[in-house]
Amino acid sequence: MKMRSVFLCLPVVFLLSGCAGSPSATSQPEMTFADLQPFELKVAKIEVRDDYKPPMKAPNVEHSFPVPPYISAENLLKKQLVAAGGGNVLRVIIKEASVVREELPVTGGFWGAFKHEPAERLKAQLIVGFELAGQQAPDIVTGTAEVTAKRSKTLMEDASAADRDSAYFALTEELMHDLNKGLVEVVAKSFGKRG
Asked: Residues near 181 by Cβ (< 8 Å), separated by ≥ 6?
């Protein structure tokens, strides 16, 4: 079975400025993925595994998210991929779900007081691998595929904690959208039960 991989790189700049009406960290909606149609795959079993180990230190910040991208990705994969019968096992491996914070140069001194500039960039990368193997010979991989998604957002220098949480949520939501698109373009077409 010939496998394909897809590389999705959709950079997005999201400028946030502080304001009194910004949502609080507890007001973000829950990502249930209820609006997405699951995929029935021609496999007997689907195993989702999270192999990503967050460094838990700067410059990485994904562990600071209310719901880290690796948890959202695992939830999406378990919800979207449905085993519909077959002789193989599909292993789904979250290889990377990182978000790196990068400081941006801002104008200092007298002129800096009159400017409102982006001060940091959040660069996210999600990589999910797929391995097809037989139930009787699980160590023999007969097919592979990979989905990669990248997103970025920029925060203003006066961004509040609520602004940051909003950016974290939006960044994760966009990554999950890209991951689901990759599932359609790669996984469903390779293993899908229905055309």
From this structure: 8
pLDDT at position 193:
72
Domain of residue 162, CATH code: 3.40.50
Q: Is residue 168 part of a domain?
A: yes
Is the backbone of residue 89 left (phi > 0), alpha (psi -120 to 50) or beta?
beta
Q: What's the count of helices (H) and strands (E) in the chain, helices before strands?
A: 4, 7
| Half-sphere exposure in the Cβ direction for 150 (13 Å, CA) | 8
- Here the tokens at position 112 are 């800096």
In-domain check, residue 26: no
For residue 48, give its domain range: 6-18+37-106+122-191
Alpha carbons within 13 angstroms on the beta-carbon side of residue 16 total 29
* Range with lowest mean pLDDT among 15-24, 30-39, 139-148: 15-24
Inside any domain, residue 25: no
C-beta separation of 12 from 170 below 8 A: no
In a domain, residue 182? The reply is yes
Residue found under tokens 């925060």: 155
pLDDT tens for 26-42 read: 467 889 899 999 989 99
CB 127 within 8 A of CB 85: no
What is the total count of domains within the chain?
1
How far is residue 71's CA from residue 97's CA, in Å, rounded to a whole number?
Answer: 9
pTM for this model (two decimals): 0.81
pLDDT, mean over the chain: 84
